[in-house]
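Here is the promised in-class demo. Please do not try to memorize the tokens; focus on the logic of going from shape to residues.
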């Protein structure tokens, strides 16, 4: 009986590994073209920008006299619980006057797959602009690997046969 239970636990462990939501790399790249980056406050978040599920400030008036803010591989693993089937945003606030720009690029990369925003809004004085990405459903949770399902079925059938009375 111990052997059968051990075998069942092993098979359930294999199934859980194949449908889990752990990612080797979950990062954001963005490019904000602006003539005075010291004007800008930039946040990345998920959900409604007014009441986000999760957000992080990635730029806060830094770099003063230089142009543009280009950041690659910004770690967003803190929001991993909300990765799939939610709307992510890049919020760019221009908090001073006299300069303007636009959001050139906003993308989420998950294990090498790019999800790119179609939005390229202007960023102007005393205004907040947004670029959005609507993430699809989690592909791993929707369709487990067929081999895992077969192994689980064999394991459960084997456990049932083992406990059958003669």
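The designed amino acids, position by position:
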């Amino acid at each position: 009986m111990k052997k059968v239970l051990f075998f069942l636990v092993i098979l359930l462990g294999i199934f859980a590994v194949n449908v889990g939501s752990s990612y080797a790399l979950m990062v954001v790249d963005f490019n904000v073209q602006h003539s005075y980056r010291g004007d800008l406050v930039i946040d990345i978040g998920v959900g409604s920008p007014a009441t986000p599920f999760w957000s992080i400030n990635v730029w806060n008036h830094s770099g003063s006299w230089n142009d543009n803010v280009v950041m690659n591989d910004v770690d967003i693993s803190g929001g991993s619980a909300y990765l799939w089937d939610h709307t992510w945003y890049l919020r760019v606030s221009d908090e001073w006057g006299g300069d303007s720009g636009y959001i050139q690029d906003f993308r989420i990369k998950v294990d090498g797959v790019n999800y790119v925003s179609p939005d390229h809004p202007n960023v102007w004085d005393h205004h907040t602009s947004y670029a959005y990405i609507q993430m699809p459903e989690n592909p791993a949770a929707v369709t487990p690997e067929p081999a895992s399902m077969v192994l689980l079925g064999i394991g459960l059938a084997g456990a049932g046969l083992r406990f059958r009375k003669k």
